[in-house]
Amino acid sequence: MKRRVCIICGYVYDGALPFDELPDDYACPICGVSKNKFAVVTHDFKEAFLKIEYGLYLLTTRDGGRDNGCVMDAVMQLTDEPPVIAFSVNKVNLTHDMIMKSKEFNISVLTKDAPKELFSLFSAKSGKHVDKFKQFTDVKRSSNGIYYLSKYANARLSGRVIDAIDAGTHTLFRGQITETEVINNEDNLTYSEYRTGAKYRQMFCYQCQQTARGTGCTMVGVCGKKPDTAYEQDVLTYEMVALAKTMQSKNDNNAVLVDTLVDGLFTCITNVNFDTVTVTMIAEDVKSKRIKLGGGDAIKPEALFFGDKNIVSLRSTLLFGLRGMAAYAHHARVLGKRDPEVDAWFVKGMAALDENHSVDEWLGLLMEFGGVNLKCMALLDAANTGAYGNPVPTQVSLKVEKGPFIVVTGHDLHDLQVLLEQTDGKGVNIYTHGEMLPAHGYPELKKHPQLKGHYGTAWQNQQNEFKNLPAPIFWTTNCIMPPRASYDDRIYTTSVVRYPDTKYIETDANGHKDFSALIAHAIKLGGFPEDTQFTGGNGGMVMTTGFGRQTVLDNAGTIIDAVKTGAIKHFFLVGGCDGAAPGRSYYTDFVKQTPMDTVVLTLACGKFRFNDLDIGAIGPFPRILDMGQCNDAYGAVQVAVALAGAFGCDVNDLPLTLVISWYEQKAVCILLTLLSLGIKNIYIGPTAPAFFSEMVLNAIVDKFNLHLISSPDKDMAEILKN
Ligand code: SF4
Fold it and tell me: Which atom of ligand 1 is nearest to the CA of 222?
């Protein structure tokens, strides 16, 4: 596959999806320029460039009383009479901008003992967010007043900028050296030692399906997550493990501390929080709670993602499952529901991440966790239906009426409810987006007449769907993507969702949220001048939802009769979370190929691949039954168990096949729940999780007959052959 490089910032696209198949509005995750600013890498210059050996240097400066610095590798001597050097700095660095103004610099020549923390600060973090010298104190000031390293460096060069040459993504500075100092005779750290040394690894994330190369994001997230955010999420995770261990040792599962774990885990889910500053603050809060509780030091990164690859795989699976379950616990808590067993398991699970277990013990823990996650989803089901009633079948229009409106996305029904209450009688309509679609089925939400319809499709299409919308968009939970300039001023987030420099709606001490700014923004934008019809991904003008557990169970008699008479021959549960990978068209094609005497149950945002299709009806039911959000997998399990009871068989003997798409960590906890229930023959795609080692994947495949999807016709034939 030909690689593409951003000609503005040098970012090399590394995603699993071929570049040509990316959506038209794909933009560089680093600098935000559009797809047409990417050039084909005609030959693999990077590999050859890596053969050029460099040293590593800390470049520091001071401007307007402020200190800053960054790690760089391109420094060379030009002449020694006069002493002149050249060095190259990426323009995205704050240090670059400061040197352009101050014209003065220090260069510390790094030695082999330079610690990871130095790179974490001076390479992975931006001085726009942190005062690096507050955290790194092995420094002195030279006579020009600029910091240099008193440790981890063997020499210091101080100088003044002679001139600066624009080199595209970088600036090449020529500098007159004014003062030098040899600090010691330790060996230089080279770039290749840094690049290949695990101790310097800056970013590693492989928690979602779109991870780079199908192995892990190491330079920048395919989701747009930057290395400094990834690093702070790792720090937050280590701190939460340490807090959980302390809670366990003190036998203290108090609700405030559990909620700290829950919200911290939720913060780390894909597409939830891109704001390094708030992630850092959350980690600091976790740390202070641990210290107050009398806990010891946080564990080190090595305890999570390094070591035996099978153990790392199992540990990662538990961590990502816990992140998913945290989302459900958070939503239930907002509606006043919590379960001591679920609370206790957050502590147990997080503490377990720093424990030594055999493979069998880890597998046992994962199955135990799957059972607890079922309880957590049951809790959320009770919270949602208790607050808003049982969903009822509802046809949802895709037309946006003229006048002011707000688009609400994410999963948090409580946020939607409060917004509906605050927009009552204000002439502002509300449209759901993405996973908020099932809200239309809940009686206590649909009673608000301004809840008009649904706009758009699944989360991964948002950059296209939001760009020309004359309305603000409100993110209640995850699924936020780096916003484009065309709509970033119309973004409002709340709760755990954060994106730098966008508007955030706070929760006050009484749990109240004030949406007046969001509502005023909608009124100011005014909406469309005329009613505007939109469609789903297949051109349909309505979507149907509201076939929750109770509706299906209330009609169990009709369904059982239909199975007995042969009107229904098979049930498919086709759902899960969606993503941008082209292989995901499998799910649309699969549903289109389902025979007319079969029923498609669906849930989560994977349904937007087909939920506007009219594939007919069986008796009173449309053949596609939308059971709700991803957490409504609980309802699907209840339906399966009830049907098995009615037919006097095991769930695995029902004419039912689960065909699941996965993307982020909520899918991980749901998969573990299904496996813990002993459900076999699940089809999952579009790819196996990168965090499953070969051994772990094989173990699951062997025990549960898990299938990776192949092609719709082949899988369909295999499923229906019995
Ligand atoms: Fe990569 Fe997914 Fe992690 Fe983002 S969340 S950095 S895309 S693995």
Answer: 7
**Residue 90 confidence class, pLDDT cut points 50, 70, 90:** confident
Helix, strand or coil, per DSSP, at residue 340: helix
Q: Is the pTM of this model over 0.85?
A: no
Q: Residue 82: is the preceding peptide bond cis (ω within 30°)?
A: yes
- Contact of 442 with 391, CB cutoff 8 Å: yes
How far lies 473's CA from each of 401, 427, 482, 499, in Å? Answer: 16, 17, 14, 13
**Which residues approach ligand 1 with their CB closer than 6 A?**
205-208, 210-211, 217, 221-223, 225, 270
Cα-Cα-Cα-Cα dihedral sign, residues 233, 237, 242, 248:
positive
CB 351 within 8 A of CB 253: no
- The residue type found at 172 is L
How many Å apart are CA 455 and CA 472, to the nearest integer?
Answer: 13
Report the side by side order of strands in the sheet with 473-475: 451-454, 429-432, 405-409, 473-475, 491-494, 503-505
Q: Which atom of ligand 1 is nearest to the CA of 271?
A: 5
Q: How far is the CA of 212 from the centre of ligand 1 (A)?
A: 8
* % of the chain residues with pLDDT over 70: 95
Predicted local distance difference test score (pLDDT) of residue 410? 92
pLDDT at 191 over 90: no
Q: Whose CA is nearest to atom 5 of ligand 1?
A: 270
Q: Tell me how far the alpha carbon of residue 630 lies from the centroid of ligand 1, in angstroms.
A: 20
On the CB side of 604, how many CA atoms lie within 13 Å of its CA? 27
Q: How far is the CA of 19 from the centre of ligand 1 (A)?
A: 17
Measured CA angle at 242 (ends 241, 244), to 5 deg: 65
Q: Dump pLDDT digits (tens) for 306-323.
A: 788 999 999 999 999 999
Q: Give the pLDDT of residue 406.
A: 98
Residue 49's pLDDT is 76
Q: What angle do CA 12, 194, 67 make, to 5 degrees?
A: 85
The pLDDT score that the predictor gives to residue 695 is 95
Cα(304)–Cα(11) distance, rounded to whole angstroms? 28
pLDDT digits (tens, 9 = 90+) for 437-462: 999 999 999 999 999 999 998 888 89
Phi-psi region of 212 (alpha: psi -120 to 50; beta: other; left: phi over 0): beta
